[in-house]
């Protein structure tokens, strides 16, 4: 029962990442499109330049998590006042 609960939690967290990346909205919740995109991503990561792609994706993810943590800390420090704008400076959306 514990393994099943852990697996469920893991899958929910992965789904949260899909939503957090904005993919649900971009794909208009089209699961066939999302699955195709994931298959394409898997091919890219398995390809001859896969190690480089994985490193790039890991760096982007780490930067995004760090930026989010900084913004959350700044919001808490401001007494939960919403920020005016959180413009990205690394050219990513």
Describe this structure in words.
- The chain has 93 residues and is an all-alpha fold.
- It has four helices and no strands.
- The longest helix has 28 residues, at 50-77.
- The radius of gyration is 17 Å and the shape is extended.
> Which structural class best describes the helix and strand composition?
mainly alpha
Mean pLDDT: 89
The coarse overall form would be extended
Q: Approximately what portion of the residues adopt beta-strand conformation?
A: under 5%
* DSSP summary: helix tally: 4
First-last Cα distance = 40 Å
Profile the largest sheet.
none
Task: Work out the helicity level.
Answer: over 70%
Strand count? 0
> Any low-confidence stretches, pLDDT <50, length ≥5?
85-90
- Gyration radius, rounded: 17 Å
Order of helices and strands: HHHH
